[in-house]
Fold this sequence. Notes:
Blueprint: E1 4-8, H1 11-20, E2 25-29, E3 35-36, E4 44-45, E5 51-52, E6 55-56, H2 61-71, E7 76-79, H3 85-98, E8 106-108, H4 116-124, H5 131-158, H6 169-185, E9 190-199, E10 206-213, E11 216-217, H7 228-236, E12 248-260, H8 268-279, H9 283-295, E13 297-298, E14 304-305, H10 320-334, H11 368-371, H12 377-393, E15 398-409, E16 412-423, E17 457-469, H13 478-487, H14 496-505, E18 509-511, E19 517-519, H15 521-533, H16 540-554, H17 560-581, E20 590-595, E21 602-608, E22 611-615, E23 625-631, E24 634-638, E25 641-646, E26 653-659, E27 662-667, E28 676-678, E29 683-688, E30 696-701, E31 707-711, E32 720-721, E33 724-727, E34 737-743, E35 747-752, E36 760-764, H18 766-770
Parallel strand pairs: 1-2, 1-7, 7-8
Antiparallel strand pairs: 3-6, 4-5, 9-10, 9-17, 10-11, 10-16, 12-15, 12-17, 13-14, 15-16, 18-19, 20-21, 21-22, 22-23, 23-24, 25-26, 26-27, 27-28, 29-30, 30-31, 31-32, 33-34, 34-35, 35-36
Helix pairs in contact: 3-5, 5-16, 5-17, 6-15, 8-12, 8-13, 9-12, 9-14
Amino acid sequence: MARNLVIVESPAKARTLAKYLGRNYVVKASVGHIIDLPKSKLGVDIAKDFTPDYQVIRGKAKIIDELKKAAKGKEAIFLAPDPDREGEAIAWHIADKLGRALRPKVRRVLLYEITKQAVQEALRHPKELDQDRFEAQVARRILDRLVGYQLSPLLWKKVRRGLSAGRVQSVALRIVCEREREIQRFVAEEYWSVTAQLDAPSPPPFEARLAEVGGQRIDNKTFKLESKEQVDKVLAGLHAPGGNGIPWVVTSVETRERRRNPAPPFITSKLQQEASRKLGFSPKRTMRIAQRLYEGVELGAEGALGLITYMRTDSTRVSDEALTAVRRYIGERFGAEYLPAKPAVYRSKRSAQDAHEAIRPTSMEYDPERVGTHLSKEELALYTLVWNRFTASQMEPARFDHTAADITAGECRFRATGQTMKFDGFIRVYTEGRDDETADEEDGEERALPVLEAGMHLKLRELVPQQHFTQPPPRFTQATLIKELEENGIGRPSTYATIMTTLLDKEYAAEGDGRRLRATELGFLITDLLVESFPDVLNVEFTAGMEDMLDRIEEGQESWRVALRKFHEPFQKDLERADVEMRDVKREERPTDVPCEKCGSLMVVRWGRRGEFLACPRYPECRNTKNFRREGDQVVVVEAEETDEKCEKCGKPMRVRVGRYGKFLGCSGYPECSNIRPLVRPTSIGMSCPDCKEGDVLERRSRRGKVFYGCSRYPKCRFAAWDRPVSGVCPRCSATYLLEKVTKRYGTVRRCAREGCDFQEQIETPAEAEA
């Protein structure tokens, strides 16, 4: 009989640990939190110094009974949830529910990686439960509950039900809204550049850019060429009278070696950003895949193995054992010239908790080529990203020969630059992705210059003037918003993915072209209301200060109850004032001079789920509504587009309308006739439903416009798939249909529809699929 019990928070983690431990251990899963604050009420007794009302989560009582039963008669009970504040809270709640009699047997185990050696080593050196870390999590949970559960009902009262506000979420939304307003206020300014196409005595031809005119340096800030007339004047000065060109002379040439250093291994935010740039993964998807790689993946005959270290971290620290292993791998795989004399050490940011290592492979023996056949496509892509980043972080810098030449012509100075790679170094394995706003056009670009020497005369081929306009700051992507939050000290590794999901799910922001986040009208409204009433809570510096406070609690430097008191007293005053003074959008009616064509009343502007709209003030007697747009101070009605289609109920023309889920067709006889139908009717793909065998599979669109496939008998049959179903039998598991998808990278691919079956085949190459 097993003498020891190990408790983790997920079944996948439990299965992996069970394979590493012998007969003396039994492993059980609590399946996440077993205790939390109640969903239906605040759950915090403010009068009793913020005492939390923790309750057993519905459905978890049976799990608690199973854990108690498994713990009876055990010599030791090891609690091994994730090694962060949330995991510490899970461990404390489990220990509490096991009871006082078993408490002396309870020990905390911190698993930073789930490999056999790491698990066995952690069990040999267990720790006591960390009360300071637990209290920091309690403080965070109560803090978020005080804000969310008191601001959200206020928004329900003043705007509409279903809205939410949060301590970090609302600050992130404010950042998105402020960027959008910067873009709206932006006025483009004209400026010009001049490029000279030149020949030296030896090839190749090259370009030089105008850098200075009459001793004034062109930096496009203090001095720039603002108009074509100004450019024409400069160009005229570059041509001598009588048709003879003025001399173009090289005045200086500087060649020096540039070194480009590798990026440090991943922390959580950088992993989310890079997975977004290179793989197109949302932060939520990245963390879901990373969790599987951390908890353990089945590698055939070798069994389960955790492939990466713990993925919620803000530290770039790496263990000595991992450094030794990766340096051995680099030397054997790439050669001694790629291996630095000493390991690279990266400094974590000042606010980093430094509790865990950076995200890295748990073993350099399992490279992506070796484990690729056992991973799904998305698991392999993310694991390869982690592997390459970690390997490159310990390789030699790349080296370039960078040349800069100054060329004079009359009163103008032109500058030509070029660089050639001498040694690729870490670039052989990995190059960090760039966001649009940080990308350097010349960085890393191979541009050869001819042999140039001071005093050398050049021949002008052509002068090319080009008009430009300044660009507004770019909208945030999920990746760049996470970067902004991180740089401002807002949130922590475990919160970023949830913040992004909430902003989109609550329709405070929407993703447009290039997955750029655009604040919606609702997002602007919520931000403006909260900033006006709660300037501290929505303040970037204040929110970052709250994170520092939580860190001090974890370090034992501050009492969590005292910290909550400091926050709550001014917050409660703002809350009481906002209840009276905050704009009541729900009941607000702003008059216009637009007449209602049904009853003659002047329509008013109201706020609805989709933003502002025109409504008759005699509602509910008159239910007439209209969409409108603003042109300055004027309200201009946007008439619904009438179509050639007729209503099948009353015969009147159908109109294109906009509702909660986008555009649809509605009867022009509304409200007498309320018939509606989709703007684009679902079309059959010529295949019967594989679930019910009665309906047809239709191509449909989701509320956000994404194509999916579902049964024509919905809701009686709920078959649905994002990828196109095709007839065929899986050669591995005999599933009755396959799923087909076209991607830029792999072309047309078919895979098995049955979960757990990894059959996949390429039908067309990317080139064939595009053709």
